[in-house]
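To: structure desk
From: M.T.
Subject: fold request, one chain
Message: Could you run this one when you get a chance? Sequence is below, nothing fancy, just the single chain.
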Amino acid sequence: MNFQEAEEYLDKRAKFGIKPSLDRIRLLCSKLDEPQLKYPSIHITGTNGKTSTARIVSSIQEVGGARVGRFTSPHLQSITERICVGGRTISERDFAACMEKIIPAVEETDRETGDPLTYFEVNTAQAFLYFADRKVDTAVVEVGLGGRWDATNLVDSRVQVITGVSLDHVVELGGTIEKIAFEKAGIIKQESTVISAVRDPEALDVIDDTCLEKGCDLKLMGRDFQLLYQLTYGIDSGKVGQAVGIRGLLREYPELFLPLLGQHQAFNAACAIAACEAYAGSIRALSSTEVEAGLKRVRSPGRLEVVSLDPLVLLDGAHNPEGASRLANVVSNDLDYDDLILVVGILEDKDFKQMLDILVPMAATVIVTRSEYERAAPVRTMRRVVENMGYECLVMEKVAEAIKFARTMARVSDMVCVTGSLYTVGEARNALGLRPD
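Reply: Done. Structure tokens follow.
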């Protein structure tokens, strides 16, 4: 089996959608000799910030000498981005070999249950097995959706991270903060440590109750650890990122450089540091050198990613109102430019009206576009919303076409911001000739 065949095999399972149950993935993993139990894990959920937090945790762990497996989703440009060991994405050859290895167990599971495994379940099992084969010391695993019924919830996690809770995926997770918090709290394991930046009192009550019920140690941002300060470097200085001070669970880290933009990334870094401290606590002390070096080398493509300075081009996969607000805060307060050219493509099942309400007023020019993903909102729908707000907009059916036009019309002092979904940003990275990371 080659990479294209492996990818096609997986893609065919997209039609099975999302099916809330752990029965299928549990049976599949039993047939694979429970690969997810062959290493301890740090499990991460939350409405926003999961991937960045996972990348920061992994980077700190790797600097400390651990062999780390990282599983995140969705990918931007290549499915291989989801599975990473030692800071390197799985090769296409290994991806195909691992897929070929699990297919007999996948198809046997399908026959026994009469309920085919989903795309995400197969991909998750593939990551579990690859990490076991590569003998990782630790796996850093990002939840795909929610937590309680997510396929990743079979891991043996000593530490769980809940970055935050807000309204998103309401059809699958519920229409209230409490219901969504309940789903995310489903990853909490007996007598573990839970790291959280959740502030909403209703969500926090749910998480606190779950921790009490399971005898867990809940560590909260602002109480047990905190961001002491955050200072964004000007882009024109050539240093993209921010200086941060963080008080962790065990010590203060007064002077850290984080090469990511946005206060929310500073909060993600604080959560990641606390998670690493909690995880290392039962094994060894976490040194300040590991934290400093780990943060300095972290990357998070498609998350407030600066890919050009002349003109400034910013890619951000904000895909819900909270993400849009965070993007707007950075664009308004942390970056210098004359005019903003906004290229936006959102999925139709998102609250795109609220997102556009947040983003459009900042822009001198708005270009609505559509990614090739099947759930992308039609451009005419987004155009109608923008025009009803009293603004004009341009329509470009293809993301590559939209970003090419935006860069052509931008002056050196302007900024092009591409946003609305990770799928839109992934296509923008392809159009700009950037390699998967």
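Reply (cont.): The radius of gyration is 21 Å. Let me know if you need anything else for the meeting.
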